[in-house]
Design goal:
alpha/beta, signal, 50% helix, oxidoreductase activity, globular, Thioredoxin_domain, 8 helices, Thioredoxin domain-containing protein, antioxidant activity, 234 residues
Length: 234
Amino acid sequence: MKKIILILVVVASNLNLLAQSNQEPPKLFTEAVRTNFLKYKYQSNEAYRTGDFERGQYLFDSLVNNQLVGSKFNDFTLKRVSNKKLKISKLKKPIFLVTYASWCIPSKGEIPALNKLAKEFNKDVEFIVIIWGKKKDAKKFSNKFSSRIEICYAHKNYKNDNEIVQSMRETLGFPTCYMIDEHLQVVDIKRGAAQPELRTPIKKAIEMNYKVFEERLALITSPDAIKKTILAKQ
């Protein structure tokens, strides 16, 4: 009887290993974008041309949820404004990545809210900002961010930046948030932030943006980390 049980255990283990080996590895993020973007672009352009912004947002969300979530984020080597390079695979924490452009002004309170979150969660999450633009412009823009955030830049004319510019800036736009887990799996992608009116008090504007970013951050942050931060505020 013991021999039969042992044989069954061995067979079950081998079948499990075989099933795992037959599973296809997740698509790379850039491949998922490349194979699905043209259809999305045509449909979204038509939606925005006719003023159907609700459908435009629906199409973006569908692209993200059905094609990009679950893909493996590329092991990009990013250029830091500090002259050092940052290789994505070297990071062993979840990544909260936000893209901006050096010529585009973020909404009121957006950067202070991001800086506040980085202060609270930098031990558990890697915060990265990619600024689309040339180094000198990105460097000026970077002065607004906390030292707890890795500030990087990319431009289509710079060596090795073509793939990241084409797959992120020229497809999903900016500002855009990428939530990536510690295994480099894309968890979610969201565009924009809160849009407070110009007359909104700065404190309120920061609170609005903080809430938006916090909800996104919760997708890749452990409950223990969130609880610890809440207790620290009390």
